[in-house]
Each structure stands twice: as C-alpha cells, then as structure tokens.
Amino acid sequence: MTEYSAKVITSIDDILPEQWHVVFNSDYPFYRHQFLQALEQSGCVSAEKGWQPLHVLIYQGSELAAAMPCYLKSHSYGEYIFDWNWADAYQRHGLDYYPKLVSAVPFTPATGPRFGISPKFSSQTNKLLALLVSVIKQLQSTYKTSNWQCLFAEQEQNLALAKLEATTRTEVQYHWQNKDYQCFADFIAKLTSRKRKAINKERNAVIKSGISFNWLKGDEITPSAWQQFYQYYKNTYLKRSGHDGYLNYDFFSRLSLALGQQVLLLQAINEQGDVIACALFFRSSSHLYGRYWGASEEFEFLHFETCYYQGIEFCISENIQCFDAGAQGEHKLKRGFEPKLTLSNYLLNEGPFNEAIESYIAQEKHHHLEYIEQAKRQLPFKND
C-alpha cells in the first residue's frame, strides 16, 4: 500500500473544488471550496489581515485522503470564542501569544466538520486524523505558535480530537429545534400563554406597520440587492463595533454564484416598496444559519421578526431541523431558542500558563453546564 504524504497549501486555490469536495462531502455551506475561495479572493482572509491560510492535506499517492483547513493568526478577531485574557497574560510576562494556529471558519461561529475524510479512506479515519494532527504539531513548531485551536467542531470530531489529547473548551449558543411543526402556530401552541401572547404582540406590531418580507435565493440576489445589504451590514458594525465589519462587498457579491440556493437574503419592505432591512442566511439540508442583519433605522420588533420569526417559518416550511441564529443572545431563550454547548479543541504548546489555562477551561465548562440548567428554566415551553 502506498504510504500517506502530507502537504500544506497557502491558498484554497491550490486544490481543485472537485478534489476538496471528496473529503468535505456534506452540504455544510461554510467549508465549501467556493465559500473559502470567496473569503481568500476578496481579500477578507489573508496574511495581511492576520489570517494566513495553511490548509493541511493528506494524500495517498495522488489521491486526496483527508484535509483540514487551518490559518496562522496574528490576533484573535473574528473567532467568537475569546482568549484575549490569555494573550494579555502572555504579554504581561514578556511572552508572545501570537502567532497561533486556528482551524475554523473565519468570522463564522457555526458548528460543523473541521476535518474531512474521503469515503474511500473512512476505515482509516483514526490514522488520518492522527496524521493531520501531527502536521499541525509540525506547523506549531515551525511557526513557534502558542497553541492550535479547532473551533466549533462537531461532537464526533471533537471527541476524536480529545482522544489525541486536544483539550475540549465549551461555549453556549442558542438554537431553535423543529419538533415536526406544520406551521408557526404549531410552534407557539407549545408555549405558555404569556410567552405566546408576547410573540404574537411583536409579530402583529410589524404587520400593522405595513412591513412585508421577501426571500431571495442564489442568483435571485442581484448586485443591487447585495449593495443594499452590504450598506446595512456596515451600518450595524459601525454602531456596534466602530468599524465596517470583517467582510467586504466583493466577498458578499461572490456568494450567489459560489453557493447557489444555499445562500438566502431576506428583505423587509415597507408600504412604499423600500427595502428597510436585510438579513443574510445560509442553509444546509438540516440547518439554517442566520449570520448578519442591518436596517435603515430603528423599527420596533423588526429585528426579532427578521432574524428569528421569519427564519423559524422558513425552517418549518422547508422541514429544516435546526436554526442557528448566531452567537450569543440570551434574549433568544424566551423566543424558543434552546441553550446548547458548543465544542472546541485546543493543543497548547509547552508554556508557563498551560496549567492555568487548563484550569480556566475546566471552570468555564462547569459554569456553562450550570448556566444551561438555569437557562432551560427560562424557556417559554409549557410543561407537558
């Protein structure tokens, strides 16, 4: 049998889409070759932006057997799981925390596969994963990184990495689950009377204001629609963070062709026919992902309708099982989004803070588990 060989590429363009999709063969949208390519070709992801691609490939002969996207990071922006306090501790002691290695979807805290194995080599999954991790460790040594982080990994992959001594770190998100609802009324019928009335009040306020909604998919999203969305996206970031956001118009404009029906733009339209708000979603066969939103001005309850209730209706109509509306947002609880643990893996290089970081991660998990039990008591569902 031909031995396996490893290769590290500095651009997703260095591998063909048809090869990549042999190993990443699910319909998870964010590791599609075209999505990663759009990030790189638009300049949103680059060494200059602190995201140097170092994608790890494992071959048997000329055949791709496994792959793991990876980035050399010079900062911690755009990750949505925070280690700034670790970086500060390193700096205070005259040590370098950066660079670090990160396997994640840039700017996208959406759980999914973080390594891919060709079905032909599925019986060799453990061996191939060990090879991928060994290459990661070589990169850690070459680039003198403080650690490697694999963020928002699927549970099965998280467990496999944990067996290779990659510490698990947790975070909490809020996901809506489709429990075989036939319509939105079925969903809110499961809620307590008070919470049901509150949601109906929010939705009715939007209806009475004369706002309607229009879903655009794939190539239905015209350049002018992207331009309008991008302006609202920038406005949201400027209000919240004081900058234009991590992504540019060039990136967004590539998505219609890159992802087709997996990218969706929801427009909120007033009685005069003006688009007053937009929200960007991605979908797979099982998940809807809400990513960005923006509006021309403040409208009462419009955010909840655009980002949550319209997405719930879409999931019901399309028989999508899970709606991940983005990181954070405790206000999602009373709207039926359930608290869920997310899982990430860490390999720490030898350093003076390893024990402290491991202890921090353990305490953090304990806090998250306690919080989830408390948060479940805030859910709006009736006790059956």
Provide key terms for this protein:
384 residues; Aminopeptidase; single chain; 11-stranded mixed β-sheet; alpha+beta; 15 strands; globular
The residue fraction in helices comes out at 25-40%
| N- and C-termini, Cα separation | 58 Å
Count of discrete alpha- or pi-helical segments spanning 4 or more residues: 11
Q: Regarding CATH, which class of the largest domain? A: Alpha Beta
In N-to-C order, the SSE pattern is: EHHEEEEHEEHEHEHHEHHEEEHEEH
**Could you give the count of β-strands?**
15
Provide the gyration radius in Å.
22 Å
Tell me which CATH architecture of the largest domain applies here.
3-Layer(aba) Sandwich
What characteristic shape results from the CA principal axes?
globular
**In percent terms, what proportion of residues is strand?**
15-25%
CATH fold annotation of the largest domain: Aminopeptidase
Main β-sheet, in a few words? 11 strands, mixed
Mean pLDDT: 97
Number of domains: 2
Give the helix/strand class.
alpha+beta
Strands across the major sheet, in which order?
2-5-6-8-15-9-14-13-12-11-10
Under CATH, the homologous superfamily of the largest domain reads Gcn5-related N-acetyltransferase (GNAT)
pLDDT < 50 runs, ≥5 residues: none
Describe the SSE topology:
Blueprint: E1 4-9, H1 17-23, H2 33-41, E2 51-53, E3 55-60, E4 63-68, E5 71-73, H3 84-92, E6 100-103, E7 116-117, H4 125-143, E8 147-150, H5 155-162, E9 167-177, H6 184-189, H7 193-208, E10 212-217, H8 223-241, H9 249-259, E11 263-269, E12 275-283, E13 287-295, H10 302-318, E14 322-327, E15 338-348, H11 354-376
Parallel strand pairs: 6-8, 13-14
Antiparallel strand pairs: 1-3, 2-5, 3-4, 4-7, 5-6, 8-15, 9-14, 9-15, 10-11, 11-12, 12-13
